[in-house]
Amino acid sequence: MFRFGRTATAAIALLAMAAPVAAQENNPFLPWRPPETVNDFGGTGLIQTPVARAAPDGQAYAGFTYVWPYSRYFITVQGLPWLEATLRYTSVANRYYGPEDFSGLQSYKDRGIDVKVRLVEGDATWPNVAVGMRDIAGTGLFGSEYIVADQSFGDFDLSLGMGWGNMGTQNKFSNPLGLISKKFKTRPTGFTEGGGALSTDFFRGPVSLFGGVAWQTPLEGLRLKLEYDPNDYQSEPLDNDLKQSIPINIGFDYKPWDWLQVGAALERGNRAMLRFATTTNFHKAKGPGKIDAPPPPLMPTAPAATPSAAPAAVPDAPRSASAPADDVRTGLGRQAALDGLALQHFARMAGEIHITVAGTPARDSVAVSYDLARRAAELAPDFTGRIQVTRVEYNLPWMVTSFEADSLRRDAGLRVTSPAPVPALYAAPTATGKAPDETVRKELAAQLQKQGFFLSAVDYKAPKVTLFLGNGRYRQVPKAIGRAARTAAAVLPPEYQEIEIIFVDNGIEMLSATMFRVDLERALSPHGGSIEEAWMRTRIERPTAKAEEASHPEDVEYPGVGWNIRPALRQTLGRPESFILYQAWVRLNGTLVLAPGLNVAGGLGIDVSNNFDKMRIPSDSLLPRVRSDIKEYLQQGTTAMTYLQADYTREIGTDTYARVYGGYLEEMFGGVGSEVLYKPFGKEWAIGLDVAWAKQRDYDQWFKFRPYDVVTGHLTAYYHYEPLGVDASVKVGRYLAGDEGGTLELSRTFDSGITVGAFATFTNVSAKQFGEGRFDKGIYFVIPLDNLYVKSTRGSLGWLWRPLTRDGGQTLSSRRPLIGQVNTADGAALRRNWNLLMD
């Protein structure tokens, strides 16, 4: 058997080493990247077994697999180019969760987390190589480790690997790692009671080989799969051994659409498998097109050495011969820009002129198309055919109109005379040295408000104007910069050639962005400029001007009031009483702004429907019950005051911010506290300190308190690694139960704005004191509402998964932490989204 083990180990190495030979210049097999599909456990793979290749960065899957007696529900994310993670619940149909009088007929549920790390990225000359672990942070029922390699040969993809644990029971042989240490030769049996511990038994015990092949059929999206299963199903958890007729699984995967995968197979030689999985890419999932109000049309002006005045009217251009194509294209681009549109395409063929523009005009679309066609007829007086104007929105034709050139000339009374040079489109602007009159200032405030901005002050010092704005709509700051600058350029006299935007959040000037009017005009023109050029010339700085020192502060009335009402859902998964416990309710939130930086906010949750009455397990915690009394809070607080908090925020020094807060801070605690944050402008790191006195709220979550109180606080270090968009934080301090320790949190924000993160907390509480789960941990997703709505918004939707709610390592929640308030000045996000400057 040991000889067979050596042979098997060598076979895996052979696959890795043979590929270069197969990839010589005369190799008839062409490189091919097969589509990534998931296996029964939710990771990229064949049927039961994994493969080494990774899905595209940011790819995510959510799906369901059934093969008796297992039903598996999973979420998988390619969190990094080389890291895949899976969260999975498994239902075991022939085992009950608990006694029938308690859990009813609910089947046993197991939760698990898998990870796979790609060690080598393959190509035509080298295979992919990966190492992975299944069920590493749960009960370990299906605990397995593996190393696998794969390579493509034409339409075939071959994989070969070695598995331990649950994947190491079929024709098993001695562990090659036993040559390093004898402890690798044996693997502890059973599973972790209560779950939650990170196993230390990785890569121990006997091993088995596995492998398979996938064939991409001529039918697009259809792949056939064949694999050798390393599990003999005679050591299944819960004493649930299963019959296996043959160790071969055969099946197929089909992708009818890019977002859906369907699979079926015959497994164990006697059981049918069915799988559904939806997929998307978190980098590309940008959401629906937006129907935001377009910025007012920007009238082109001439850049001058002196400040500009209003542009002169554009006279008709009489001529008897057509202007060169570039002149026609330029003229049409300018005409489109007058209505906030961009010229995408211009073509003149034998008897037709085709014009394509993109955007949403500020006036009637038919009138806009008519003026574009009329301008084309004017610029090409010798043309006598049809002029077609197509307006595109969200990459789709929105309106197509056609005109006869001769009819346009008769209707417009265009003259056809001798050729004349193209007249200048601009009059040289002159400086007035005065602020715009009140009508213009009011129009500026009104137009900015339509764009979702709150104008608090304006400083007019021609040729520069400085706007102090609150951004209430746009999640991406470059998009907000572009919208605000375009609006100001469209409304203000052209003598204001330099436009500075200072974003004010909660009374604090956070970011200064300065653009030049000429760059806006060039970027919006089909010739002579680009978004890249405009962004390169945009100055991003720490604000030096203050709103209270501006020449024209706006008359801001306090208090300001804002509110919203929306449906909401909260749930808990995997409890013995019922797998899903939920509440559908309506959230009513309101904010009262009393002064810059000072506000009071509150929220009510109104019950619509819930099944929390099924919860029966009380807390058995040995620690102060700061979170584990969740049953009482959910059952008695179905309609409740979720929070009522006052806070005051200000900048106390360069790059240093502070806030004080107090009230009913969250559903379980109230109190008072303070926070200080130091974040150097433009840097990728920050450090903060928060301290609070907290008192436990009553179960009904209205105004009463329970006797327990505690002083809690943390010192937190933040760091952002821009190449991968990864955020890391480490906090150390005292938690709500009085325990002391630290929390490590890692998250990644993808190009779409979706964030995926995980955290783990370790304190001086022993595993026995902590109870089931051993330590606090969780996974969370944050989805910008901007990706779901047809209008821009800065809000987000979050989902947190904790395997258990225990009392150790619990932190106090409060609204508007400082690290979230300073994200307007996040340099990484600015660089990531600069291409939205002219969106």
Radius of gyration: 32 Å
How would you describe the shape? Answer: globular
Structural class: mainly beta
Overall residue-averaged pLDDT value: 86
Q: In what order do the strands lie side by side in the largest sheet? A: 23-24-25-26-27-28-29-30-31-32-33-34-35
Helical segment tally?
13
Instruction: Work out the number of β strands.
Output: 35
Question: Biggest sheet, open or closed, and with what strands and sense?
Answer: 13 strands, antiparallel
**How much of the polypeptide forms β-strand, as a percent range?**
35-45%
Uncertain segments are 1-32, 302-322, 413-428
Gap between N and C termini, in Å? 66 Å
The residue fraction in helices comes out at 10-25%
How does this structure look, described?
Helices cover 15% and strands 41% of the residues. The protein has 839 residues and is mainly β. It has a 13-stranded antiparallel sheet, with no helix packed on it. It has a twelve-stranded antiparallel barrel with strand order 1-2-3-4-5-6-7-8-9-10-11-12. A six-stranded mixed sheet has the order 21-20-19-18-17-22. A hairpin with a 2-residue loop joins β6 and β7. α3 packs antiparallel against α4 (365-379), α4 (365-379) crosses α5 (405-412) and α8 runs antiparallel to α9. 38% of the residues are buried.
